[in-house]
Amino acid sequence: MEDDKIGSPQPSRRRFLLTTGTTLAASVLAAHTPGQVLAHETETASSGDASAVEGAIAITLRINGKDHQLRIDPRTTLLDCIRESVALTGTKKGCDHGQCGACTVHVNGKRVLSCLNLALMNDGNKITTIEGLGTPEAMHPMQAAFVACDGYQCGYCTSGQIMSAVALLKEPCGPDDAAVKELMSGNICRCGAYANIVAAIQQVRKRA
Amino acid sequence: MHTFEFIRPTDSAAAIAAAAQSKTAQQGADVRFMGGGTTLIDLMKLNVETPARVLDINRLPLDKIELMPDGGLKIGATVRNSDLAYDARVQRDYVVLSQAILNGASAQVRNMATVAGNLLQRTRCMYFRDTAMPCNKREPGSGCPAITGSNRTLAILGASEHCIATNPSDMCVAMAALEVKIHVQGPKGPRAIAFGDFHLLPGSTPHRETVLDPGDLITHVTLPPPIAGSKQLYLKLRDRASYEFALASAAVVLTITSGKITRARIALGGVGTKPWRSPEAEVALTNKAANDAIFRQAAEAALQGAKPQSENGFKIELAKRCLTHALRTAATS
Q1: Higher model confidence: residue A166 or residue A29?
Q2: Residue B168 and residue B276: Cα distance in Å, rounded?
Q3: Which among B56, B105, B111 has CB closest to A111?
Q4: B128 in Cβ contact with B122 (< 8 Å)
Q5: Contact B109 A55 (CB under 8 A)
Q6: pLDDT digits over B169-222, tens only?
Q7: Terminus of chain B with fewer CB atoms < 10 Å: N or C?
Q8: Is any Cβ of chain B less than 8 angstroms from the Cβ of A73?
């Protein structure tokens, strides 16, 4: 799923938020400094890339099969880099301290927490985010199962849940629901969609 | 987060030389090795750790699990917790270690966290993690608000008037019972440290948690040769079923011959200021019949020196029942 296609003709909630965020920032600046709007707009549009930051380091990150050449502050977590520098906003920031699982991505095929990982540690690694899993037209079987089983309510934890669930398919996991629950315990859902999440995972495992 | 210089040393010697520049290897070190980052990045975000230099050791060749000539296992410092827990040799011969690791954290954290990082895992005491509060471990001499404050999850064994913070590791509890050796390469050469000598009691210096000095790089740990027929179990009790630190846990390694316990290695977690090996329980079990009365006596012996804080008196009985149940379950397995 290409999440960053701001130019897409189809309106979406995500596209609305991304574009209004930029527009609002630009219009606020315009009100105060009309002569410099263009410069500020440029700055706003590229605020995620830290090329202006002193001490920024060049890095190539391979995300969803595509190389991204970036200059980042060494403090940048993989999560912030994915969201702010690469503008793939499907990966969510929940607690930012490794306690909720919303930021789960795959690094070299294994699920990890992108909030407890420095972007700099990942040059040469293969990173997969929810955008690299499937597209709205051709969903990953786990994405389709989450839809079919209603495995979410507000949806904020969902991309992390799905990234965890897909990784779980390749991990040692017993056949019963209890084993799935144990291996999914790193992904918290405040809406409490757990029963349906387990059902979605079991549906995919039974069909595999 | 304070900014830092990110360095990827090309070999262990370069890593050791760079880390030897640090004033300390303990709390507040200005040079830190970075493994999985699951503890260090968390604490850097909280400004509890503020290293000026971070040394990424993930590309050093310290990531193998190898069989040793004596039949034991050599486990590299950057072996991920999940790779160790799922290793077939560990699951067969050291199952208590596999169980302890899989009872800790979540699948994502276990995929990131390293063996050496887990040895150095920091306490979850909320006062340590909050720079707005005094804490003798974080700022020596500033005081311990936990003693009169929120201490339900904190230590009942090994505490001092300066610090009552619990060691949170599950892996370390199993390693204490398995008598693992920790191998360190430092500016003065290599050395091996018995597991029980590695972590320090808080005493009047709670900011010193281990015997490591600046430049000391944990390169690997070694497991002694497997003990044929030993019965092993890790039991963890906590506030929720998963992804939670222990209120009390027990690692037991027993050899039972004709109903008699001939060898016992016992360690407790969630209750001590360090991974808590209990020689008292081991003495109470050795050369005794494997029955409930003896198990309870061992548990009483293990907790004899326990001192409750204002909110955690329940942990004494909880730890006793945890150990008793673990012994019974292991003995009958």
Answers
A1: A166
A2: 11
A3: B111
A4: yes
A5: no
A6: 999 999 999 999 999 999 999 999 999 999 999 999 999 999 999 999 999 999
A7: C
A8: yes
Residues A109 and A149 in one domain: no
Question: Is residue A44 scored above 50 in pLDDT?
Answer: no
In a domain, B182, yes or no: no
Give the structural domain span for B36: 5-58
The SS3 assignment for B215 reads coil
**Identity of the residue in A55, A75, A112 whose CB atom sits nearest the CB atom of B111:** A112
Q: Does residue B268 fall inside a structural domain?
A: yes
Quote the CA–CA distance of B19 and A198 in Å, as a whole number: 46
User: Is residue B218 within 8 Å of B119, Cβ to Cβ?
Assistant: yes
Domain around A174 = 141-207
Nearest by CB to A116, from B41, B58, B107: name it: B41
Question: pLDDT averaged over chain A?
Answer: 83
Neighbours of B311 (CB within 10 A): 14
pLDDT, tens digit (0-9, with 9 covering 90-100), for B64-77 = 999 999 999 999 99
Question: Structurally, how many domains does chain B consist of?
Answer: 2
B108 contacts A113? CB cut-off 8 A: yes
User: What CATH number is attached to the domain comprising A106?
Assistant: 3.10.20.30
B123 to chain A, minimum CA–CA distance in Å?
A: 15
Q: Is residue A175 part of a domain?
A: yes
